[in-house]
Amino acid sequence: MENIKVDVIIPAYHPGKEFSMLIERLTKQTFPIHRIIVMNTEETYWNKELEEKFSILEVHHLKKQEFDHGATRAWAAELSDADVMVFMTQDALPADKSLIENLVKALTEDEKTGAAYARQLPNENCSFVEKYTRSFNYPDRSAVKTKDDLPVYGIKTFFCSNVCAAYKRDIYQKLGGFVRKAIFNEDMIYAGRLIQEGYAVAYAADAKVIHSHNYSCMQQFHRNFDLGVSQAEHPEIFAGVPSEGEGIKLVKKTINYLIQKRKIWLIPGVILQSGCKYAGYLSGKNYRKLPRKMILWCTMNREYWKV
User: What letter would DSSP give residue 305?
Assistant: First the structure.
């Protein structure tokens, strides 16, 4: 592991104090980072003092209309010459100094592992229900997923999150990397291709970041609409691997958990949020049947639909 070069890649937009804290924590990791490549949207919002404070930063600016979940990360990957590329979002904070070390370890334990993603822990203002959702999606046990696990995990076999995920650059290049046009979900699309090509995706439970959101019902609708669109646009990955089952499983387990914890007054909110998620997802899966005005109302990413 000592000869492995690591670059961290972070798309950023209007970064604030949390971003500075992220960079600070990355510079104190037990595993040395070669470069932190920042793909910043709109130079106007960039704080140049960060480059003076952290010499490890390499910043590239782009316009808002140029940003794409897949293309921007693919461009950043082309700028990297590292053995391992760790992609993060600007609102994820390393929970300790071993994040990079544990990601690299998970990624390099088997030559067939092409990606490894971190465990996401709730932040201090996370809601009670969202804390449980985090524990459902990011348990405390590591796992390695291959094509053989599709009957067991279903759609979760392809799960991988660029909130914090590491990739072997040689395999990434061999498979063509992230799709160049993606409304959302570029991480799972690539992970699906990895699985289909006989590689593995590792979940590293000991590689931890602090990251959570308290989304409203409408935010969940918009987010899941884009998720549905991404799956509809990539049937080569998602056809025949339904994801509804995982959603239903989460709802049932959450309701049971709330009953056990005697917080039954939270159950109506769970049902309402779940309904919004499913409505958004179903609308996104069938976006080709919707008029353009409806699509623009449903989406979280209006720039994606501009021709």
Answer: G
CA gap 60, 166 in Å, rounded: 20
pTM above 0.85, yes or no: yes
Determine the 3-state secondary structure of 125 from DSSP.
Answer: coil
Q: How far is CA 47 from the centre of its chain?
A: 25
**pLDDT tens track, the chain, 307 positions:** 668 999 999 999 999 888 999 999 999 999 999 999 999 999 999 999 999 999 999 999 999 889 999 999 999 999 999 999 999 999 999 999 999 999 999 999 999 999 999 999 999 999 999 999 999 999 999 999 999 999 888 899 999 999 999 999 999 999 999 999 999 999 999 999 999 999 999 999 999 999 999 999 999 999 999 999 999 999 999 988 877 777 888 999 999 999 999 999 999 999 999 999 999 999 999 999 999 999 999 999 998 998 6
Q: Which residue has the tokens 């990895």?
A: 194
CA dist., res. 11 & res. 72, Å (int) = 8
The answer to whether 180 and 70 are in contact (CB under 8 A) is: yes
